[in-house]
Amino acid sequence: xxxKLLYQGLIGLSFSxxxxxxxxxxxxxxxxxxxxxxxxxxxxxxxxxxxxxFYGKLGLNFWLSIGLSLASVGIVGAILEGLFFRRIYDLDxxxxxxLTFGFILIFDDLVKMIWGGVAMIPPMPxxxxxxxxxxxxxxxxxxxxxxxxxxxxxxxxxLVLEKTWWGRMIRASATDREMAGAIGINIPTLFTTVFVxxxxxxxxxxxxxxxxxxxxxGIGTAMIVQAFVITVIGGLGxxxxxxxxxxxxxxxxxxxxxxxxxxxxxxxxxxxAIVLLVRPEGLFGK
Amino acid sequence: xxxxxNLVLYLFGPIIPVFQCSDPPKDHWSLLIDFMKLRIVFFAAxxxxxxxxxxxxxxxxxxxxxxxxxxxxxxxxxxxLLGYTGxxxxxxxxxxxxxxxxSAKILLLVPSLLLGIMAGVVAAGIAALILGYLCVxxxxxxxxxxxxxxxxxxxxxxxxxxxxxxxxxxxxxIPRAAFEIPGIFRISMSEMGSYYYFVLVISLIAIFxxxxxxxxxxxxxxxxxxDSENRVAFAGISIRKYRLISFTIAGLYxxxxxxxxxxxxxxxxxxxxxxxxxxxxxxVTLLGGIHTFAGPIVGAMLFYVIKDIIVRFTQYWLxxxxxxxxxxxxxxxxxxxxxxxEKIWPLLKRKQGDRT
Lengths: 286, 356
Prior knowledge:
The structure holds 2 protein chains of 2 kinds.
Chain A: H1 2-33, H2 40-57, H3 62-83, H4 93-115, E1 131-134, E2 137-140, H5 141-163, H6 165-175, H7 177-182, H8 187-209, H9 219-234, H10 239-259, H11 264-278
Antiparallel strand pairs in A: 1-2
Helix pairs in contact in A: 1-5, 1-8, 1-9, 1-10, 2-3, 2-4, 2-8, 2-9, 3-8, 5-6, 9-10, 9-11, 10-11
Chain B: H1 2-12, H2 28-38, H3 40-56, H4 59-84, H5 92-109, H6 113-135, H7 140-160, H8 162-165, E1 171-172, E2 179-181, E3 185-187, H9 192-214, H10 217-227, H11 229-234, H12 239-265, E4 267-268, H13 275-288, H14 295-313, H15 317-331, H16 336-355
Antiparallel strand pairs in B: 1-4, 2-3
């Protein structure tokens, strides 16, 4: 029994890392730009489709295709921020949300137009095929890779935000936008780079996730609520919180499927509501 | 030219005040007179048009009109929260679904349309009262997130709790039962036209009741809370209680809209509870105009008209609708109604003034 639970925990851990990749960019963008981006899930979906095309269709090298997916979603992010998002930072919440929602509609149909409406299963890279035997059960090597990738992204994010000049500028403008601008930080440019960075984080999640999940239109809208749950649990705009939130949601989902399959999704939203009611600033909020 | 402008003023002049919601509170009768008399040209025409619609409209147009009425009721209730109370709910689809599922359940048990609709409204109202009690503790984005989480809870129940909700197949074979009070009268609803009249009459009553609510001292208090929470609180008014009542009314309207659906479609499925469906009232309210009473109605009409037009040209209508939404936020933030009353209307007026 214990082994079964540990194994399920491990499965949950790999799912958590996947969720973490998805939510990191969302919470970063919210923390700095102050906009809750509904279309973040769509950027994730675009990342998945891009890597499906580069790797599955064109047969490029796995790592190269991930790099290309990142670059292309990054460009989409730059266009989005440069043309649209930068005009809504001072608007009321409903307008911000509905503009980002408009992009969900656009991207969902765009994807259908280009790749068709059917769900597709991309191929698994050969060097990640196969299973490890953990507690007498097969554990896909790819899941192990996802765990490491998630931890690596967390480490990179921490290094970038804490140790580089750019990270320092980001933290400064997240704390006080006007003051940061007053001491010479070019806020519009910084915001664009942060948004592109956040879009690329979404793309990493989408691109790395493709070999284990189906690629279909609408995965963006399904994933974005999960990301909302995670960012709310951790505290909106809090990266450390998002990491812990992803762990909680991932492991809870994994055990939920095992223990109470009917209410697995329900429980996650109960946790979200409880956090909002008891500690709206999130587990790691100020 | 001049005569044409006069004609425009003559025909559409009476519409304009309907769209503005800044009148001070009035008593019941003068409101009813306002509602009917002052705008009598417009309303007589509109209601006559709506009443005569089944005479010349095909089944499809009637079906669309029912959907427009349904979305109008849904969005009007939502706008009581957003436009009048200043709270953005992203979980209204949850109450819509509670209404739809409750009325479907009742209709499957007892074939009585009235009972089904009442069950939907009551169930949604109770759900809104209970969840609202928790939701109104917060405002702004935390309120939106909290409503989103409750809405998604309802969605996950609709999707997974197979014994009660039928799971992802939903509930099927719901009859469009007759509108009947046993022993007094019975009107069959098997014709689309009859069901259209039923929805039309109930919607008009509901819309007038809401008009009455927003123009009452209660509505004024809500607007006060929206604009300056602290001042209203200092006046000794329990803000939370007012927000809760507003939330419950919005839930009742969502439930009413939801309970219109099962008899129309003969089926209910979980996607009506999904958060993307919660975005629909937000969308049409912003489209029509958030700070006007009729905004959501105009938005609901535009929503279906735009959809119907685009679908004729391409199956990918969401790209174009999404683009319209983006342009709306960037260019016409007040919504269509404000755009007409504040941009086009004064233009016509000024031209008329120039000549005299």
